[in-house]
Amino acid sequence: IRDKAVDKIVKGIEQNTYYRETKDGETKYKLAKGVGMATFNHHTSREVQDDKINPGGYVDPQEHTHITVFPKVLGQDGKSHSHTLLDLKYEKGNNHEGLRYLDQLGQHELCKGLKELGFNVYEIDKHGNFGIEGIDDNLRDEFSGRKKQIENAVGEDATYNEKKEVALKFRATKSDHDLASLRNVWKDKMNELGFNQDKINEMRKPENHTIKHEDKKLADLIDKDKPLSNKKLKTLALSESKFTDKSYDDKLKEFKAGREKLEDVLD
């Protein structure tokens, strides 16, 4: 499931990578013909070097993937060009629209796979991020040593930038680990908290799915005074379809119709 999610993000990057071409003093953005990327799957968080938080000296599990995009792309003219992906990092004016779209591509695929396995996913914040019903805060906290270390330093209510600054200070160098041994440690910790195979089996039963998601309309999700781009519309459709029985295509069609109605009202 994770591999499929990464593939979706990689494809999304490929379909949204442009380069600038200037002719006769006029600059145009063109879609790259080919984009080179490499992916690296990692399974652990960085070490927490704090005996109070991490007395055993073990690292936490953290499945994540690094996607490295090569600095040059193949242009439609068959030549190499510098791409504009770095611009996405500085898209503050439109609330990082491009990055949020890529994020939801991956989240949508993860949720789709989890639901096919029988798990129930639910919305946890205004950004459309998801949780899995049955995984409680006690379990999350047990494997969140880095979060504890950062919040102990700046407080739970610190801003994102304040936490980020402290995170860099406590950023231990990456080390090699015996993953098989670590998984045994993680499993023992989970068993202590009652999270075992029986618990997982219970989580997958439909009758135990109690958290429901309200099927939201487009008008519930947007600021009517701000322009709504096609990418934003796709991002919202990806996010909302994670939590309902409607497909992404169905939700996108519904949102497009909702945008037309809103535009008629505004006109």
Written overview of the protein:
The protein is an alpha+beta fold and 267 residues long. It has ten helices and seven strands. The strands form three sheets. A three-stranded antiparallel beta sheet has the order 3-4-5. Helix 1 (2-14) packs antiparallel against helix 3 and helix 5 (145-154) packs across helix 6.
Would you kindly provide a brief summary of this structure?
The protein is of the alpha+beta class and about 270 residues long.
Question: What distinguishing features does this structure have?
Answer:
single chain; 267 residues; alpha+beta; three-stranded antiparallel β-sheet; two-stranded antiparallel sheet; 43% helix; 17% strand
How many strands, which pairing sense, and closed or not: the largest β-sheet?
A: 3 strands, antiparallel
- Calculate Rg over CA atoms: 22 Å
Low-confidence stretches: none
User: What fraction strand?
Assistant: 15-25%
Arrangement of strands in the largest sheet: 3-4-5
Rough outline: globular
Helicity, in percent? Answer: 40-55%
Overall pLDDT level = 89
- Number-wise, the strands total 7
- By DSSP (H or I, 4+ residues per run), the number of helices equals 10
**Intertermini distance:** 44 Å
Give the SSE string: HEEEEEHHEEHHHHHHH
Structural class: alpha+beta
Strand and helix map with partners:
Blueprint: H1 2-14, E1 18-23, E2 26-31, E3 34-44, E4 61-74, E5 80-82, H2 86-89, H3 97-116, E6 121-123, E7 130-132, H4 137-142, H5 145-154, H6 160-169, H7 179-192, H8 197-203, H9 230-241, H10 248-266
Antiparallel strand pairs: 1-2, 3-4, 4-5, 6-7
Helix pairs in contact: 1-3, 3-9, 5-6, 9-10
